[in-house]
Amino acid sequence: MNTLNFDEIHIEDLEIFANHGVFPEENRLGQKFLISLTMYVDSRNAGKTDCLENSADYGDVCRFMTEYTKSNPRRLIEAAAEELAEALLIRYNILKGVTLELKKPWAPVGLPLKTVSVKITRFRHTAYIGLGSNLGDKKAYLDNAVKALDETKGCHVEKVSSYYVTEPYGGVEQDDFLNACLILETLFTPEELLKRLHEIEQAAHRERLVHWGPRTLDLDILMYDDAVMETDDLIIPHSEMHLRSFVLQPLCEIAPNKRHPVLKKTVSQLADSLTNR
């Protein structure tokens, strides 16, 4: 995510007394923490209208960070920072991302130092998900998957395509599929999102017995922002999405101008290319 696309609002060294720490005395007695926060926003509308509702209310943000940090003690400042950053992005929709530094000036290390701190940057991401089912109540499986994703903490379903009846892919004799695509705003990394998709598939009693075989529910990450990555478990963008009409047709309905980060063509162009073959 390119932070140059956003404006910044800064909060420096908000002082909070809280009970984070590994040692019992830290948990019992508490100590001082300092929080510095950069909020990445689009402030143009606020600047044009001079209206607080169009900006991040830094007073409210400070009060929220104070209460959250005091009420959610953690052993590690890494955990405290991670959870606070997530809570901020969930609470304040105007935030595109945050850089948060949590400082611990009274760290019990037995040596003279100014402070110990952890600094993290977290952004919202946009994922494009393919859905399919060809066993049982297909529509119910897709409906439940959309609902499960939207109800997942740190995720919000922005758009869902129509459901399309499509022929099976891969040469295995089986029933027609019901396919769709959705756009998901998420705080998850690609790996975390893949894990969540597998959990939703398992809840639908998905069995991976035959490659390209029948399944109650199939969920695939098609694209994730403009990421290009390959691991043992995950390839983004999906390696065959540009060859599959049952992906491109519903995806074209909700994201026709999204550009494939490798092929450099829009979804609409990819769909047209496949149709004209």
Would you mind describing this structure in some detail?
This protein has 277 residues and is an alpha+beta fold. Helices cover 31% and strands 28% of the residues. Strands 5, 6, 7, 8 and 9 form a five-stranded antiparallel beta sheet that branches. α3 (58-71) packs across α4 (77-91) and α7 (245-254) runs antiparallel to α8. The protein is elongated, with a radius of gyration of 23 Å. The mean pLDDT is 92.
Largest sheet: number of strands, sense, barrel closure? 5 strands, antiparallel
Q: Could you tell me how far the N terminus lies from the C terminus, measured between alpha carbons in angstroms?
A: 35 Å
Estimate the strand proportion: 25-35%
Q: Ranges with pLDDT <50 over ≥5 residues?
A: none
Determine the fraction of residues in helical runs and give it as a percent range: 25-40%
User: How many E strands?
Assistant: 11
Order of helices and strands: EHEHHHEEEHEEEHEEEHH
